[in-house]
Amino acid sequence: MAVKAAHKEIDAEIGDSHTESLRKSVSKRSAVFSRAHGVPSPAASVVAVLAGVALLLNGCALMPDAKAASQETRTTAQGAVLELAGATITVPGTAVATDTAVSASLGRPAAAPQDGGVLRTVSQKLQLTLGAPLADGAAMSVTLTLDPQEYAKGFSPSVDSLALVHQRKDAAEPELMRVAWNPDTKEVNAQVPADGEFWAVHVDVSQVLKTVQSGVEKTAEMAASKPSCVGQQAAAAGMTFDAPSPAGAWICLRESTGKVVVSVSASTSVPLRLATAEQRFGAAVPNPTILNPYFQQVFTPLVKGANARAGAVPGAAVEFELSAAGADQTEWTFQPYPALFLLNYLSIMVAATLESQENLEDFDATTAACVAPLVDTTMEQISLASSWAVPFVEGFMDCVAKTVQISPRMDVILGSLNAVPELVASSAAALWEQGFLGEQARESVTVNIAGTMQWARYSGTLNAAKISFEHPAGWTVMDGSINQQFGQRNSVVVYDHSGSKKAELTVMDSVHAGIAGTLVPVTVLGTVAGGAKLSAPAPFAVQSLAMDLGGKDQLRKSNLWPQNVKLAASISAAAAEPTQRAPGQLTGTVTVETGVKSAVHNTTTRQVSFSHVSNFDDMASAQNYAGGSEFAAIQKMLASFTG
User: Hey, do 2-203 and 454-639 end up sharing a CATH topology, with the first three levels equal?
Assistant: First the structure.
């Protein structure tokens, strides 16, 4: 009768419904970490429970009639079962030799693992001792009942948030093991490979997220310190550039091979992304004293060679090359970049689970390559919304599971976080929106780069005419009389900082009228009055004319035009603005007095041509260039002519 009674008790406590609930308790989401890294699945512990059931059914006499805080027994051919008031140990008969001593006792754990409060102890400590080690590859089943006092505090565990701590006798640090979880009996179960001390812990996800928040806030605090380069000017191409730092960003300028490089870093936790297409110059420049090292491991390869992904983050500047050296005012708009914020947040979250710096080397370009599609599909977002943030969290965690060598402790903690992507995303969104981020979380940031042109004056004598004009200091004037590769005799040519021809001045004895040719309508794109009177007292102005020969292929070819539209700016004595001109007569001339008779004509005056000519595919392109600061500098240079 005693055997039948024992069988009924076993059926009630460890029956089919119990093992089925254990099977169902295995989380599909957290299991991704176990599968990826070879950690035994929680479902494996079901086998141990079933083995215990078989053992009990075949040898009930091994189990004492009453539960106690400690027990001792010896194994038989079927193994041994010890059932305490809060713990059950099942040793299969194949795991140890027959007649091996087994003892177990329950007590309060001395301390939880040193984890900053992430793991909270939720059961009594089980002290389990075997008289001999388990056979190679063998395991025994340990089942612990969770502390009822935890439920009185509002405790709400799940299979994803529970783990078993195993402290071996010869190990300095305890191990964490995944468990199967029966919410009906409030028990956790795991297969263990050796004896030692065991207790159940609960992963406090909220504590992990608090650690992440602290890391984000610390980064923001350090990023708020103004870099020493802020406020310094840069000189290049004959211009001096200045860029005040707006709220939300630090702006630094420097010169590089005759060009200006603009360095932008975030001064809050809100990363920024350039909303307009500008050429990227070099890679992101991390500041290791600010940038989270684990985020840096992903961020650096993520943006390398991928300009579109580049963003200014706290602790990493992104550099841009100023596209127009002649620009007197350049305005860039930066938008909030929540995709990089979330990536930083998740990187800090993973860092909180790392046990040592050795894990850092695994968090590298492989992870970045896996994460890249997540960033590419969300970079245009300017608010951190759950509709894209939750899939981002899930995708990131999947990348970590595939590319990072995860320890058992990381597996347990990340598995708990991976089971609640909505909570992780909402916690990140709360940080994005909360007060210390300010309004930068929702507004664009405008960067204004002001350039002041530095001017120099050229003076010389060409064909007995004393000429002089101002030009941008970064441009070069070459005399064709000295070297004809820079222009014809009695000419000077003006080149910009990159060696492109911008204007040519020629002093002639006279101007040949020539054949007028076919008259074509012209568009006047500006008239600037001359800055000084000439020696021949006729006033002059700088006229800018554009002619379009698109659709007039024969006329364009006969005049040797390389493109459809020609834009010409020149000094001219003509008083009225023309409405039409011949294709070969877009530039004008002025007369100067030299006091020296020409060797060709019996006159002391000379004709001066000072002009700029450029070609475009269409009129809109010519008009756009004519409205820019470089063309304005050319007009100013021509208007400064004296002679």
Answer: no
**Domain locations in the chain as residue ranges:** 2-203, 209-450, 454-639
Q: What is the 3-state secondary structure (H, E, C) of 599-628?
A: CCCCCCEEEEEEEEEEEECCHHHHHHHHCC
* Distance in angstroms (rounded) separating the CA atoms of residues 319 and 55: 69
Give the Å distances, CA to CA, from 399 to 42, 155, 364, 404, 429.
22, 31, 11, 8, 21
H-type helices in 404-518, by residue range?
A: 408-418, 421-433
- pLDDT tens across 69-109, in order? 899 999 999 999 999 999 999 999 999 999 999 999 998 76
State the pLDDT at residue 514: 56
Fold of the CATH domain 454-639: Protein Transport Mog1p; Chain A (3.40.1000)
Structure tokens at 500: 């492109």
Residue 70 DSSP SS3: strand
d(CA 577, CA 528): 11
Side chain identity at residue 18, one-letter code: H
Per-residue burial over 2-11, b = 16 or more CB atoms within 10 Å of its CB, e = otherwise: eeeebeeebe
Per-residue pLDDT of 4-62, as tens digits, reads 333 333 233 333 333 333 233 334 444 445 434 444 444 334 333 334 433 333 333 33
Exposed, middle or buried, 176 (CB in 10 Å: 0-12/13-18/19+)? buried
d(CA 634, CA 613): 11
The one-letter amino acid code at 33 reads: F
Check: CB of residue 399 under 8 Å from CB of residue 33.
Answer: no
CA contacts within 13 A on the Cβ side of 304? 12
Task: Please check whether residue 407 is in contact with residue 173, taking contact to mean a CB–CB distance below 8 angstroms.
Answer: no
230-286: pLDDT as tens digits: 999 998 877 889 999 998 899 999 988 778 889 999 888 888 888 766 555 666 788
Amino acid at 628: G
Tell me how far CA of residue 354 lies from CA of 37, 340, 360, in angstroms.
15, 21, 8
User: Does CATH place domain 2-203 in 2.30.30.100?
Assistant: no
Alpha-carbon distance of 114 to 198, in angstroms, equals 16
For 448-462, the pLDDT digits (tens) are 888 888 899 999 999
Residue pair 570/612 in contact by the 8 Å Cβ criterion: yes
| Amino acid identity, position 147 | D
Q: What is the pTM of this model?
A: 0.70
Rounded to whole angstroms, the Cα distance separating 185 from 87 reads 12
Task: Kindly tell me if the per-residue pLDDT of 136 is higher than 50.
Answer: yes
Q: Which residue is listed with tokens 């190679």?
A: 136
Closest CA to 41 of 143, 180, 200: 180
- CA torsion sign for 201, 206, 209, 211 is negative
Sequence-ordered strand ranges (E) for 75-210: 79-84, 87-92, 101-107, 119-121, 125-130, 140-145, 162-167, 175-177, 180-182, 187-192, 196-203
Closest to 611 (Cα-Cα) out of 632, 628, 586, 592: 586
C-alpha angle 124-130-134 in degrees, rounded to nearest 5: 110
User: Of all helices (H) and strands (E), which one includes residue 3?
Assistant: helix 2-13
**CA–CA distance, 283 with 61 (Å, rounded to integer):** 73
